[in-house]
Amino acid sequence: MAKFQFPRTGNLVLLDVLNQIKWQSFNFPTDVMLWGQRLDVSTWLTSFPRNTSSFYTFEILYNKVALFLNSGRLKYSYWEFKPSKNRNITFVELGSKGLELFDDKHKKMAQIIASWKVQPVRFLALGNRTGNLGIYFYSPTTRKFEASFQALNTTCDLPLACKPYGICTFSNSCSCIRLLTKKNHEVSDCNQRVPSCFCGGGTTQVKMLELNDVVTVLKDAPKRINVTKTTCANLCLNDCKCVAALHSYGDYGDPSSEQCSLFQLVAGIKQVEKGLGLSYIVKVPKGTSYHHNNPSVKKWVLIVVGVVDGLIIILVLGGLVYYLVHKRRNNLQGTNNDT
């Protein structure tokens, strides 16, 4: 190497005696993409959250850019952006207004636009705590970098918003799964560990249980079509690597539109509105109070309103009652004084 250069773009470049680039840091990105940086297809950013073996990647693929949750050899997407008309991507570049997508003729065909238009974009980052993708600018007012674009705008859309087998509720808080047996004995709580692998025990040791009104944000799981909910549960039950299944009714008038996705990872569970035609079914060890050999789906009783939500409701109702009583007392005192 003859010399190196460090221009304003932040790209460290090593040159030979003929001033030809032999190595540059832009070709080896970590979790940040700087303004002016270009990433070719089949490259990615990577970030590692703490206290977990899973990690996040932002990948540039031929037909889309996407966020992935990786766990061992498993990979599931949880956000994606596709160009229109099924056009292929050759490379992406971070410009002053956002992330630009180019085709094989170096023509810009799509763009993820940052909402803040006064200050130029400085960098794109993949958060190591949340796995969210953000585009940032520098704010002279606050004197710090702020996000002008975020791929995911709600907590419950994050893949690791809660611990495994935890549910992200409408209040953006995490609720654990509790199962009530026929005798109303609680056999599962937040402190009980559910095995991540069921191979070796056979189907007689496990069962499939449906979580009411919840789904997973994870995508790209192996999918079967024209499958009923019971068949979907059985497919996961008979596959020791499968730990959860998502069944979709699609069009209720068309049975062939039913779909079943099989997952080897339980994560990204969130509460949804009723009536969406979605059923999320997880595999768990058989409880001591159940002795059914029938692998049909049983229902979970979810405690989705946590302690915090309950306290808030109690405080609001208590405050309202206090206000009405206090107002009535003042009115009575005023009437007595007038008399």
UniProtKB/TrEMBL annotation:
<dbReference type="InterPro" id="IPR036426">
    <property type="entry name" value="Bulb-type_lectin_dom_sf"/>
</dbReference>
<feature type="transmembrane region" description="Helical">
    <location>
        <begin position="300"/>
        <end position="325"/>
    </location>
</feature>
<protein>
    <recommendedName>
        <fullName>Apple domain-containing protein</fullName>
    </recommendedName>
</protein>
<keyword id="KW-0812">Transmembrane</keyword>
<keyword id="KW-1133">Transmembrane helix</keyword>
<keyword id="KW-0732">Signal</keyword>
<dbReference type="InterPro" id="IPR051343">
    <property type="entry name" value="G-type_lectin_kinases/EP1-like"/>
</dbReference>
<keyword id="KW-1015">Disulfide bond</keyword>
<keyword id="KW-0472">Membrane</keyword>
